[in-house]
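Allow me, if you will, to draw on your knowledge of protein folds for a short while. I have a record of one protein: its chain in single-letter code and its fold written as C-alpha cells. The full record is reproduced below for your convenience:
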Amino acid sequence: MSEATTLRITETDKAIFRLAIPALGALAAEPLVSLVDTAFVGRLGAASLAALGIDAAILGFAFFVFT
C-alpha cells in the first residue's frame, strides 16, 4: 500500500481542459449577467424588479439547457 502513483497528463486530458475553460466561463457569466441586470432594473421599481425575476428564471433555464 505504500506504492506511489504518478499522475500523467495525456494529450486527451489537455484537449478536455481546453474545452472546459470556455464552458466554465459561460457558467460564470450567467450569474454575473443576472447581477448586473438586477442592479440596473432595481432602480426602476418593484414591478420591474418582479418582472426581472421571471426573466432571470427563464434565462437561467436557457443557460442550463444549452450549456
